[in-house]
Amino acid sequence: MVAVLAVMVTLLIAPAKNESQTSDEAAYVVSGLSYWRTHDFRLNIEHPPLLKEIFALPLLARHAKFFANDSDWNGASEWDVAPKVLYGNVVSGMTLLRDARFVNIGLTALLVLLLVGWSYRMWGVRGAGITLVLGAFEPNILANGHLATTDIGYTLGMLVSIVAFGWYLERPTMRRLIFTALAFSFALLTRFNAALLVLILPVEYEVVMWANSDRAALSCRQAWKTVGEFALVAFVTIWASYGFEVRTLNQFQDQQALHTLGHLGVVGRFLTTTPLPAASYVSGALWQASHNAGGQPAYLFGHTSDNGWWYYFPAAMAVKMTLAALALALIAVVARIKKRAYVVRPSTAFSGLFLLVPMVLLLAIGMVTKLDIGVRYVLPVVAMLTVAAGGAARLVPSRLNWYGGVIGLLLVWNVVSVVRVYPHFLPYANEAFGGPSNLYKSLIDSNLDWGQDTPLLTKYLADHDITDYRVHLFSNAPGWVYRI
């Protein structure tokens, strides 16, 4: 396992060092720096602070400075502040960005370890081995794993919360409850989408109770007591992450949040003018809710839409995941149907249904949203599919049969399919859709080009002696950084 993870980390280092700043990275890294330096959370309010603060830790070690003129600061414009701070600091902007990316590589390694551990609990050693290869060589995990963005951290937060909850349900103790509540808090501090856990975890509880009909369910009083303890730990953790701030929402001058509150009548006016703990978190959640409802222009298979398509994410996953991983997930389904049990029976809290529920709910919710701009929005589903694929081990007895040979060949194919695009993991597309060079026919935006290849553009212009050109970069990085 150590060797496979070492290879994965090695694959991520080169693109982390050499790729140009993508669309959101500067805003995240500099916003995190501003939180540490000013203890003010006005920049990039649309995402919670935790991951951005983690990305900014290396900047603190390098004594990076935060500065902003009154206009940018008062307007809370991270898109204007970020490039000035990142590329006008005491240390090279690309060095600061590289260091922040290295932090995310560490989070990526933790994510793969979590996937392997989950798979081991369900399928045993052989299943964990399948998940290890698929997770470490999953193109979408690698594509986002070397960038200082929130997708890996969000996926880690969602999955560790679900796994911790299953661990708690196996033996409900106060220690496990606190750990699960802290995991839940971590998830809520990565992205506001993590609030979906409020729906997922109760359904998971019902699944475990249904699968264990002989187990007594919590009484109403016990259930509310547990929810109260859970909520208290989460509330205190989130409030502490905002420095125990108490503010009114109308102080933020966030028009999207205020517009959303305007539809709530008396309740909205009360929330707007009443001092609230962690008001920045509330304001950001309202901003995100308004943004998600509005949606963004989308592209799929040569067509554009302002409202997206209900089938966008299943289609994007079919394009962006390896054919080998999809085949192994299908084999796992076949193994379940055939009811082979050559591996240790999983604990009831980590049954196949316990894994299936969050996958289905997250994908279904994604399918009704209007943010059809990247498979990264369902990255937790992609990650959990690597765990599900571990179920293919059910078809392999202690002595390898021909099923084992097929699984081995599929794993080799998965590795080759991903490594052949190194170091350009972001525009990965599987062989059925023509590979990366044909991805533009199916998907664009953060599936294909997020501004990561500006150095290649610089090289192309120089190699072809092109001096008269116009360019619009898919990021807010100044062109001079890449000699454009």
Features:
mainly alpha, two-stranded antiparallel ribbon
Description of the structure:
The structure is a single chain. By secondary structure, this protein is mainly α. The chain is 61% helix and 2% strand. It contains 20 helices and 4 strands.
Number of helices: 20
Question: Measured on Cα atoms, how large is the radius of gyration?
Answer: 23 Å
Shape: globular
Major sheet attributes? 2 strands, antiparallel
What class do helices, strands and sheet pairing give? mainly alpha
Describe the secondary-structure layout.
Layout: H1 2-18, H2 25-38, H3 50-61, H4 70-74, H5 78-87, H6 93-136, H7 139-145, H8 151-170, H9 174-188, H10 197-211, H11 220-241, E1 246-247, H12 255-262, H13 265-273, E2 276-277, H14 279-294, E3 298-300, E4 303-305, H15 312-320, H16 323-338, H17 352-368, H18 379-389, H19 402-419, H20 454-463
Antiparallel strand pairs: 1-2, 3-4
Helix pairs in contact: 1-6, 2-3, 2-5, 3-6, 6-8, 6-18, 8-9, 8-10, 8-18, 9-11, 10-17, 12-13, 12-14, 16-18, 16-19, 17-18
